[in-house]
Amino acid sequence: MTFVNVGTLGAAPGKRDELVELWDSAEAHRASLALSQVQDAIARARPLLDGTFGGHRFTVVGSPLRD
After folding, report:
1. What is the DSSP letter of 24?
2. Which tens digits make up the pLDDT trace of 27-62?
3. Which of 46, 55, 54, 56 is nearest to 12 (CA)?
4. Domain positions in the chain
5. For the whole model, what pTM was predicted?
């Protein structure tokens, strides 16, 4: 299965694809936040966001975003 953290990060115009990421589980998502490369990615993403946040979490059986 695939863990999905569906957020409503408001992307700056033309920057949506630079923000998309997938995780295998909620634990993998949580653990990823401690990685230095993820912290760096978050810092780089901040200027691409418009400050609008929200979302939902759920587990899906399949995903068109995964090969």
Report:
1. S
2. 888 898 999 988 998 899 889 888 887 777 777 776
3. 46
4. 2-60
5. 0.47
pLDDT digits (tens, 9 = 90+) for 4-34: 666 666 788 888 777 777 777 888 888 989 9
Count CA atoms closer than 13 A to 33's CA, side-chain side. 6
Assess contact for 2 and 64: CB atoms under 8 A. no
Both tokens of 14, joined, read 């033309």
How far is the C-alpha of 59 from the C-alpha of 51, rounded, in Å?
A: 26
CATH 3.30.70.100 fits 2-60, yes or no: yes
How far is Cα 17 from Cα 14, in angstroms, rounded to an integer? 8
Cα 21 to Cα 17, 67, distances in angstroms: 9, 14
Q: Supply 61's token pair.
A: 């059986």
